[in-house]
Amino acid sequence: MILSDKLSPELLTYIEEIGLHHESQGISRIAGRILGLLMVTEGALSAEQIASSLQVSLGSVSTNIRLLLQTGHVEKKSVTGDRVTYYIFSPTAMEKEVLSALKRTASLQTILEKGAQIESVKKNEVLSERFASMKESAVHFEGYLEKLLAHWRSQS
After folding, report:
1. What is the C-alpha to C-alpha distance for residues 47 and 85, in angstroms, rounded to an integer?
2. Which pTM value belongs to this model?
3. Environment class of residue 144 by beta-carbon count within 10 Å: exposed (0-12), middle (13-18) or buried (19+)?
């Protein structure tokens, strides 16, 4: 296990970059930092070890771990005879990302279809073409994501 006293400056910088990336995606920076830490950790870590390594509060770790468990980025790991819950980076985290993108794309298509049916949009050629083009792009993107998911699953 990598703990804070063993984290090199290079790893700390990487963990922070992962945090900033996730923050830019609408997830808290601490959740991203937890993911970054678990990505560079061979074994499982307890919430206390995560808090200590990242120098954040245990409450913040607990809140963000719950979110990461819900999204499938993190999994619980138990150790026989140990009452502490440990966490690992989920081996299916990238698959969950693709599934999430597919869900968002399907939702966008529904919204675009609804918008295309608005009378003022239907009557305006520029707007009508805009909605049709956006819908076509969303359909193509969905197809690419489905192919990516199929490829990902075939590699597992």
Report:
1. 8
2. 0.77
3. exposed
